[in-house]
């Protein structure tokens, strides 16, 4: 059972230090705060938060917890907490700045919120979360021209193909869902495909866009032209098999010509068999390589040569750290902002069978 005396007694470091707190100490601070919020007065809670923000000044979640609590009691004090945390202790922490921007926007301080977002993007550039937050700010303010301008800026100045694809897909979705402009949304995706003809997700987004408009403004001919373009693209064989399956599903759901259904079903079966043959060949090649490696290791063992996995190479000389390296470089090295991974989380699962993935004989 917790009590304030026992929690206070367990605090080992009540002063600021750049060395991280151990997990037990950090957990104790959080437990102490939770206990005080539940049992203490407003004054005692604020005193404890201020004590904690000295020892835990570099912990973003502590500042967020303090601001969230204070927001229920005093707007100006909340603003001061955000300002102190973002401008002094944690100038590169995105979540904290974004929470501050949301707070200011909720208070009707739109100029202050926009300034926070701009300063954050300058301090930590090329993060899609910040870029999308700036775009959504303009969208909430009812400024479609500014939204379009930002989207086009991010697409044109993307730092990688993955980033360009991400913003192109988001831009097309905005144009279609919010702007109601199917043709422009389609063109944005097709332009992105020209820049990266191997991007599976862009083809998937384009197909989904056509599905959304079918059969009102998109006819069968346009759907099959898109499928033909995808099958002639630079996608991998397994990706083409997936799109071939979707083409058969489309015919099952909406097709009216039995001959075309049979034609594309046969093409799909041929593609599946080709994929299975290639997969089998790759598996055989892997087995051969493993066998050759095992023989090589046995031969080395007979000759008394130490195996590569057991041999201890001489230690490399220690190279001094580059004094020109900055804290910002370290920040990026520890930031988990994988454009491709974030974008690849989108799923387009259909409740259909596999159309021969498991029942097609290999020949």
Characterise this structure.
With 363 residues, this protein is an all-alpha fold. 69% of the residues lie in helices and 0% in strands. It contains 17 helices and no strands. The protein has helices at 4-9, 23-39, 42-55, 60-70, 75-89, 94-106, 110-123, 128-140, 144-156, 161-177, 182-195, 200-213, 220-231, 237-254, 258-302, 327-333, 339-344. Helix 8 (128-140) runs antiparallel to helix 9 (144-156). The longest helix is centred in the last third of the chain and has 45 residues, at 258-302. The model is unreliable at 310-314 and 316-363 (pLDDT under 50).
| Number of DSSP-assigned strands | 0
For the CA atoms, what is the radius of gyration?
A: 29 Å
Overall average pLDDT: 83
Q: List segments where confidence is low: pLDDT < 50 over at least 5 consecutive residues.
A: 310-314, 316-363
Shape: flat
Task: Describe the main β-sheet briefly.
Answer: none
Number of helices: 17
> What is the N-to-C order of secondary-structure elements (H for helix, E for strand)?
HHHHHHHHHHHHHHHHH
Structural class by sheet pairing and helices: mainly alpha
The percent of residues in helical segments reads: 55-70%
Q: How much of the sequence is in beta strands?
A: under 5%
From the N-terminal CA to the C-terminal CA, the straight-line distance is 69 Å
């Amino acid at each position: 059972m917790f009590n304030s005396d026992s929690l206070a007694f367990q605090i080992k470091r009540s002063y600021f230090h750049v060395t991280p707190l151990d997990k037990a100490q950090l957990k104790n601070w959080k437990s102490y705060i939770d206990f005080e919020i539940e049992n203490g007065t407003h004054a005692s809670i604020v005193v404890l938060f201020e004590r904690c923000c000295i020892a835990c000044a570099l912990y973003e979640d502590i500042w967020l917890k303090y601001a969230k609590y204070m927001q229920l009691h005093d707007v100006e004090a909340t603003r001061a907490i955000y300002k102190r945390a973002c401008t002094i202790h944690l100038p590169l922490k995105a979540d904290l700045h974004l929470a501050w921007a949301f707070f200011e926007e909720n208070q009707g301080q739109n100029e202050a919120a926009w300034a926070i977002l701009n300063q954050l993007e300058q301090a930590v550039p090329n993060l899609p979360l910040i870029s999308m937050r700036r775009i959504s700010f303009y969208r909430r303010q009812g400024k479609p021209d500014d939204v379009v301008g930002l989207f086009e800026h991010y697409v044109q100045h993307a730092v990688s193909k993955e980033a360009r694809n991400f913003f192109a897909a988001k831009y097309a979705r905005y144009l279609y869902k919010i702007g109601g402009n199917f043709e422009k949304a389609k063109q944005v995706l097709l332009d992105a495909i020209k820049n990266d003809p191997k991007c599976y997700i862009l083809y998937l987004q384009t197909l989904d866009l056509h599905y959304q408009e079918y059969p009102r403004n998109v006819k069968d001919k346009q759907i099959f032209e898109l499928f033909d373009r995808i099958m002639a693209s630079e996608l991998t064989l397994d990706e083409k098999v997936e799109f071939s399956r979707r083409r058969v599903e489309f015919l099952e759901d909406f097709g009216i010509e039995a001959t075309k259904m049979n034609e594309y079903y046969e093409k799909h079966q041929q593609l599946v068999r080709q994929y299975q043959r290639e997969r089998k060949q790759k598996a055989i090649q892997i087995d051969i390589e493993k066998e050759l490696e095992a023989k090589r290791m046995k031969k080395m063992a007979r000759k008394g040569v130490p195996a590569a996995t057991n041999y201890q190479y001489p230690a490399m000389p220690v190279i001094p750290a580059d004094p020109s390296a900055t804290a910002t470089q370290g920040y990026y090295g520890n930031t988990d902002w994988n454009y491709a991974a974030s974008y690849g989380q989108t799923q387009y699962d259909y409740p259909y069978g596999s159309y021969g993935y498991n029942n097609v004989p290999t020949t």
